[in-house]
From TrEMBL:
HAMAP family: Phe_tRNA_synth_beta1. The gene is pheT. It is found in: Cytoplasm. This is Phenylalanine--tRNA ligase beta subunit. InterPro entries: aa-tRNA-synth_II/BPL/LPL, B3/B4_tRNA-bd, DNA-bd_dom_put_sf, Fdx_antiC-bd, Fdx_antiC-bd_sf, NA-bd_OB-fold, Phe-tRNA-ligase_IIc_bsu, Phe-tRNA-ligase_IIc_bsu_bact.
Amino acid sequence: MLVSYKWLNEYLDLSKVSPQELADKMSVTGIEVEAVEVPAEGLKKIVVGEVIECVDHPDSDHLHICQVNIGEEELSQIVCGAPNVKAGIKVIVALPNSRIAGNVKIKKGKMRGQVSNGMICSLEEIGYSDSVIPKEYSEGIQYLPADAVPGEPVFSYLDMDDAIIELSITPNRADALSMRGVAYEVGAIYNQVPNFKKEELQEVAKPASEKISVNVTDTTDTPSYQIRIIENVKIAASPQWLQNILMNAGIRPINNVVDVTNYILLLFGQPLHAFDYDKLGSQEIVVRRAQAEEELVTLDGVTRQLTTENIVITNGQVPVALAGVMGGLDSEIDNQTTTVALEAALFEPLSIRRTSKQFNLRSESSSRFEKGINKATVDQACDVAAAMIANLAGGEVLSGAVKGAEVVAKDVEVEITLARINNYLGTALTVAEVNGIFDALGFVYSENDDHYVVVVPPRRWDISIEADIIEEVARIYGYNNLPSTLPSGETVAGALTREQRLTRKVRSLFEGNGLSEAISYALTTEEKSMQFMMKESQPTRLDWPMTEDRSVLRLNLISGLLDDVAYNVARKNTQLALYEVGRVFYQNEEANVALPIEETHIAFALSGEWTTKDWQGKGEKVDFYHAKGVLDNLFAMLSLEDVITFEKTSEMKEMHPGRTANIYLGETKVGFIGQVHPSVAKAYDVPETYVAELNLEALLANDAGKLIYQAVSKFPAVSRDIALLVKEEISNQEIVKEIKQAAGKFLTNVEIFDVYQGKNIEAGHKSLAYSLTFVNPEATLTDEEINRAMDKVTKALTESFEAVIR
């Protein structure tokens, strides 16, 4: 909400309060101020000019040589390329050595051989956004009012010397989405009562009901709806003061009728809509739900396919407006309009929200309908708008508003005690102080023995319970004035839980292995959520997602990491090692679980180069064993290496069938590791990528990893090597397991140090070599003991795998 400081001063006396002081005060009383800007700041030597003479440039088909009165004895020659420049108009002139928007300095110069002493400016060149410039001046220069004095600074004529205060309005304070609401708020802060000017409505004797009838089919959808008729209007540009108000509020001026509706929107927070009565095609207005597959061409020229969720304004037959969102193109106000049908209404907020989201049409009007409107001023806003249209467009207002539905606004009574206020706020406020706060807020109240009955007016529809009253007292009293105290009593030192402590160690380990932490969105698309799943689950959908890309809670972490990889690859990053600790959300529809089951996972993705090429050696690309090495380090840190097993799988369609393994903790599957399937990698636009995802909760909850401390043996260790030839489908894991079972209690370690396939090796076979380490903590091992253990290993491998010992 953009608030004009000048406009606010029309209702309150803020002559002793600077805009910045006002902004600071509003911020500490509950309405956040984003910024305070003065449009004229940074601009210099920009004045009013009067074009006395305008002739075509002899050496250009679009330039004009203008003689301009800038308040000096002699006329100033300025070359201008605007198509609408002509003699007899007042314009914006940037003098030599002036500063315009963007800190651009204007110098005296020549254009096609002709001297130009400055520049005749458009609104855009002095800082206005193209979206708010009146269409008639959007391709050229702005005309100033006829009474503008040549040579005077231009800023006051355009209200550029005003301070624009940008408010960040929370949904519960929609009353501040209007100048009247802001005036009441500021009045409460400075203990003033706003003084609003009365706009007298003059009606002719002819009843409006003779020209139109109104029917509302469902008062739940449309609690209030009325039409006023204004005849014999003359469409023209609005006066400069009205255009200035709208442009400073970020709204483009259109014409005197449409601009009045936007002015009332800013003043009352009440959206209005003006129809060209003659274009309606009937003398009837019916407000109803749209029928399936009905169509409406809205003011932006787009044909909208309507649904039964949409409330529409019809002429009894076809829609002419999308209620609360946008009018129809066929009934818009244009230069030929002579009779205006002015609409004022209240619509059901949720329906307006759904419609604006459905058609991606967010407007100042729809925003206010969604958040709430002061029901007590619907009639007043419509009457003031009709009176202004009559004054500015020379129209005649027909007698009476034709109403199809009407709502009666009621005050709300809230009871509260002084003790309750003080107990909640920790204050010692007196009755007099609280009375003063209620007086400042404009709330009627009665007090008896510290017991209050507070009557809240309809303009503050956000207040209905005790807590609301307490908040109002705290705001106006000043949050900075509330007492602060330190906690009393004994305190105990905090500590991390076992899971928190281990999670920190896991993060440190991953980062020590060269991975960087990523944080991805928990919301994703349904397609991505159903990929890389470790167990079956239904997706958990949001009822009203902000976008379709964030509509479902994730069931895996890898899809988010692949998005991160794709983002980095697109920016020429070649070394990518990312990990994430986060929750996934499982939903079991059959069990009718209201909320999803949250499970903490850890995942990583490796892509590109593991080491880069340099003078010391060649670069190395990531592969399966780099990924598995990270997991081996993790399991070693958690002391789970003895209970973790890997099992080759081809069941996951998103993973490479020959380079993927499930990970088991005992008999329970806790994760997987492997290469992303090439087709999936292509869909994500990433190169060859290796990923893993684990159920971190299950890993940390397992007690197999408890450390058992043993004294270092005083006796020497003995190492023996064994080489064997086995079929290639036999895994290293199976062989190591067999060796450990056969070698006996003195075996402390088994390491594979060679794998070979190729020349001199039978097809379908591979050669493996292992180093076995033996230690007896109580005595020195003898050759006989080692040989017996090795014989048992040889026999077990031969019998179990048909291994050939080499």
